[in-house]
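> forwarded from #structure-qc
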C-alpha cells in the first residue's frame, strides 16, 4: 500500500510541499534546538515512576470498578477512566526506546510487569523497531516500520486504519496464547511470528530481525510470561471461571486503548512522503505538535506525544522536558521559522486535513 504514487498536477504538488519539494534543513532551527536544550536531556526517575505507577493504579482501579459496577452508567464512566489511564501507562513504551536504561533502573521490568504482560504489549515489540523510525535515512521510506503515506491513499483507508485497531486485543491474545506455543514446534512458524507479528508497526512490508544475545534472552523471558498469561486468560474464559461480562469489559477497555492510540498515530504525522529520503527539517514538517493552550491532547497524546514533531528534532529529550524545550524555542525563534509550521490546534482539524488530501486527484 505504500508504493510511491505519481504526481499528476502542479496543484497537487503545492498542496503537499513536504512530500513533493526537497526541503533544505533550517540551520537556525536545528542549532537553536540543540543549544537551548542541552540541560534537558537527563530523565528524572521520580517523575517517570510516579507518573507511570499512578496511571497504572488508576487504570486497574477503574477497570475493577467497571467490572464490579451494577449501574450501566458507572460501568461506562469507570471504563473510560480505565481506558485513558491504561493508555497513558502503555505510552511509556515509547520512552523505553529512547531513554538509556541505566538512567532509569528497572523501569523496563516495571513496565512489563504492570503493562507489557497484562496488556500483551511487551517492551520488545517497540525496542529495536521504533529507533528505525528515527533513523535519518529511513524516515518516511519503505524501510520505516512506522510510516505509511496515508494522505496519498484512498479515502476509505483512513477509517479502516483506525477501526482495525479495535481487533488488536484479540489478535494479541491469539499471537501469544496460540502462536507463541505453536512456534516452539516449528522453526518456520517461529520465524514468521518474530518477523511479522512481534512489532508495533504499521508498514506491512516491515520484517524485523531475529533477536540475538542478551536481547534474545530478555525477549524469551518476557514472551514466555505473555504466553502464560494469554493461555491462562483463554482457559479462564473457556471454563467460565472468568465471567463473559468481565471479559467483555476488559476487551472493550483494551480495544478503546488501541483505537485511541491509532487515532493518535493517524495525526502524529501528515503522511505526505512518497518514499524519498527527507532532511531533518522535512521530517519535522511532516510531523505534528499540538501544544498548549489546547487541553485535550493531554488525554489523547500523553507522555510528551503532543510534541511529536519536536520529539523528532530532539529524540533524546525525556517527555517531561519537552514542554520546557518548546517554550524555550518559541521564545527565541523568529515567527518566520519553520518551527511554528508543525504546530496544530487539535485532532479534528488534522484528521480533516489528511482526509481532504486523500480525496485530491492524482
Amino acid at each position: 500500500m505504500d508504493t510511491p504514487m505519481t504526481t499528476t498536477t502542479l496543484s497537487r504538488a503545492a498542496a503537499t510541499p513536504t512530500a513533493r519539494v526537497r526541503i533544505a534543513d533550517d540551520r537556525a532551527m536545528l542549532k537553536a534546538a540543540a543549544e537551548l536544550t542541552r540541560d534537558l536531556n537527563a530523565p528524572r526517575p521520580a517523575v517517570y515512576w510516579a507518573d507511570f505507577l499512578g496511571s497504572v493504579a488508576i487504570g486497574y482501579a477503574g477497570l475493577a470498578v467497571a467490572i464490579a459496577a451494577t449501574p450501566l452508567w458507572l460501568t461506562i464512566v469507570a471504563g473510560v477512566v480505565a481506558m485513558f489511564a491504561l493508555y497513558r501507562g502503555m505510552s511509556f513504551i515509547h520512552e523505553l526506546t529512547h531513554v538509556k536504561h541505566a538512567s532509569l533502573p528497572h523501569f523496563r521490568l516495571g513496565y512489563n510487569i504492570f503493562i507489557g504482560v497484562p496488556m500483551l504489549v511487551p517492551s520488545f515489540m517497540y525496542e529495536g523497531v521504533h529507533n528505525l523510525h528515527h533513523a535519518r535515512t529511513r524516515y518516511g521510506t519503505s524501510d520505516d516500520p512506522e510510516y505509511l503515506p496515508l494522505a496519498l491513499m484512498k479515502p476509505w483507508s483512513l477509517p479502516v486504519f483506525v477501526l482495525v485497531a479495535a481487533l488488536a486485543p484479540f489478535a494479541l491474545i491469539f499471537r501469544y496464547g496460540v502462536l507463541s506455543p505453536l512456534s516452539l514446534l516449528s522453526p518456520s512458524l517461529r520465524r514468521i511470528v518474530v518477523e511479522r507479528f512481534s512489532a508495533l508497526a504499521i508498514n506491512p512490508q516491515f520484517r524485523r530481525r531475529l533477536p540475538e544475545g542478551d536481547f534474545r534472552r530478555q525477549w524469551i523471558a518476557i514472551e514466555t510470561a505473555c504466553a502464560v498469561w494469554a493461555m491462562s486468560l483463554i482457559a479462564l474464559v473457556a471454563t467460565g471461571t472468568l465471567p463473559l461480562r468481565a471479559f467483555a469489559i476488559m476487551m472493550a477497555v483494551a480495544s478503546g486503548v488501541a483505537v485511541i492510540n491509532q487515532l493518535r498515530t493517524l495525526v502524529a504525522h501528515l503522511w505526505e512522503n512518497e518514499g524519498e529520503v527527507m532532511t531533518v527539517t522535512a521530517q519535522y514538517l511532516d510531523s505534528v505538535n499540538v501544544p498548549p493552550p489546547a487541553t485535550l491532547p493531554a488525554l489523547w497524546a500523553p507522555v510528551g506525544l503532543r510534541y511529536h514533531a519536536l520529539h523528532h528534532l530532539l529524540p533524546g529529550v525525556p517527555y517531561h522536558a519537552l514542554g520546557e524545550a518548546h517554550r524555550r524555542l518559541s521564545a527565541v525563534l523568529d515567527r518566520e521559522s519553520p518551527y511554528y509550521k508543525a504546530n496544530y490546534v487539535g485532532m479534528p482539524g488534522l484528521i480533516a486535513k489528511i482526509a481532504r488530501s486523500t480525496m485530491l486527484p492524482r
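QC bot note: Confidence is low (pLDDT under 50) at residues 1-19. The radius of gyration is 21 Å.
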